[in-house]
Amino acid sequence: MDGIDMLEKAEKMKIHRESAGDTAMMPAKQVFWGVLMLVSLFVLVTAGLSAGRAAGNGSGNERASHRLGRVPDGAVAGDGAIAGGWGTEVLAAGKIDAVGSAGKPDGKTGNEGTAPVPPDGVESEGVNPALPDEGIENKGEDAPPDGKNGNEDADSPPEAEDTQPGGKTGSNEADAPGKETGNGDAEDADAPVVALTFDDGPFTKVTNRIVDVLLAHDAGATFFVVGSRIDMYSDTLKRVYESGFEVASHTWSHRDLNGLSADEVLKELNDTEERLNTYIPVGEVLLRPPYGNADEPVREIAGTALINWSLDSEDWKSRDADTIIRYVLSAVKDGDIILMHDLYESTAEAVEYLVPELVARGYRIVSVSELFELKGIPLEEGILYRNPFDCY
């Protein structure tokens, strides 16, 4: 048994030594595999970063295109960028830029409602040009609240001019230091004559354009001013008067006079005339009743001649220069008083064509008072005129 025991002990000792050797070898294997894994991860990470930089940076030409403002394919430039200039914003196709102007489905910029900025030196009287008809319920002179315009008994539209008692007209052109209005030779008595009239102003950016073209063609006109606008546009009013044009009243607030009491009518008229004379020495002036409405009580109160029109350009309705031009040229005739409004840029654009065209067709363009004088018709207080030969 001793020999057997010794063999068993020897075998156990051998197994123990082999086991101990294996155990000693394990840390070395783990270190080897750990190092191998770290090396592999490093290679993979390095390769990934290199690929990312290559994809993100793009070519040098593409980077230069962005810097110089050129828009790569598939992108759109922001509204604020100057084509081909520096600092152009580049947007993904169909996206909206910082001011919300690109990629709108209807092709609009989103700025359509923004009021236009008038040129320097034009809008000098502190008014918002986006609100040219502020304070005026402008439905067009032939669209009064009750649907009447004072012309129901007339075969043609109304006309206008004013006269003071004793047969003296209400014209204030002679007192103005500006031009002599009326184009053509004074001795040409056979030439057709029309009076241009402008209601609801002044409005600087439009009124000044109209004055410019009238002066350029030695044409006259009468401006029927709304009293509540006078303070706001006093510089423009002075320019109209000092340029030699006739200035008249379109009441203080453009209300239908037929619906007012006698005291209210008087206030509408007196306040306007008083305010006019604060800035320009016009004295008593002609009156154009809003919507052409002036019943007998209003005419008796007016204290001056009342002027409607015989040709409504309907500029208030179409707001389109071509439409205005076509209509006026198709309907105009000798003795007409033409109704327009110096509120709309489309009207100014139409006038810039109509005035030289009418002159080329042989017409003299004058104020209301000049028209009546040339036709030999005295303006009388309390009479509503549509033209020199049509009144009531």
Outline, from the CA principal axes? elongated
Q: Helix coverage percent of residues?
A: 25-40%
Q: What is the correct CATH architecture of the domain at 163-391? A: Alpha-Beta Barrel
Helix/strand class: alpha/beta
Q: What portion of the residues fall into strands of 2 or more residues? A: 5-15%
CATH class of the domain at 163-391: Alpha Beta
| Helix and strand element order | HHEEEEEHEHEHHEEHHEHEHEE
Determine Rg (CA atoms, Å): 42 Å
Q: Would you tell me which CATH topology of the domain at 163-391 applies?
A: TIM Barrel
Supply the number of helical segments: 10
- CATH homolog superfamily of the domain at 163-391: Glycoside hydrolase/deacetylase
Q: What do the pLDDT scores average to?
A: 72
Largest sheet: 6 strands, parallel
Low-confidence segments, given as residue ranges, are: 51-140, 142-170
Describe the structure.
By secondary structure, the protein is of the alpha/beta class. It has ten helices and 13 strands. Strand 3 (163-164) and strand 4 (168-169) form a beta hairpin. Helix 3 packs parallel to helix 4 (234-242) and helix 5 (262-279) runs parallel beside helix 6. The longest helix is centred in the first third of the chain and has 56 residues, at 2-57. The protein starts with a helix and ends with a strand. Residues 51-140 and 142-170 have low confidence and may be disordered.
Summarize the topology.
Blueprint (H helix, E strand, L loop, with lengths): L1 H56 L2 H9 L6 E3 L12 E3 L70 E2 L3 E2 L23 E9 L2 H13 L5 E4 L8 H9 L3 E4 L12 H18 L16 H7 L3 E2 L3 E2 L2 H4 L2 H11 L5 E5 L3 H16 L3 E3 L1 H8 L8 E4 L2 E2 L1
Parallel strand pairs: 5-6, 5-10, 5-11, 6-7, 8-12, 9-10
Antiparallel strand pairs: 1-2, 3-4, 12-13
Helix pairs in contact: 3-4, 3-9, 5-6, 8-9
